[in-house]
Amino acid sequence: MDILDCIGNRDLLTAADSVGFFASRRVTPLTAAACRDWAENLCLTEPHKVVVSGFHSPLEQELFRIFLTYRQPVVWVLGRSLFRRFEPDVARLIHAGVLLVVSLANGTSHTRESALERNRFVAETARENIFAEFAPGSGLESLYDWSAERKKTLIIPPR
Fold it and tell me: CATH number, domain at 78?
């Protein structure tokens, strides 16, 4: 998978310590709370660990806000072209070198294919991967299986 475009600190892509994060569009309240706790703990205990994600699902977006608040290094992988403008707080972090936004596809909307490509890129790029609990048979299950064969991979909350 090739990066078509990016803006921000490219060094974040090759950081020695990075974690990919994945969450389905729908998660239980218990899973959401456990993931929020994980994110805040990561920010407090490992402030230099780079978080790589598409930040597309509602829970991923919520954690993105947590990471931005703590100025956690982030690689935001888009399954579409780059946005023309970014919110001021996002733009500040791009310019501060804390955030890299990566585009893997042309077009202004996500497709199922671009989402799969985005998720595979995240899983391959990160040194370890964290998955919010997902339904059996979901798209995340096959990505989890792929990741678990290759690197440290965990589910929140643990099964």
Answer: 3.40.50.450
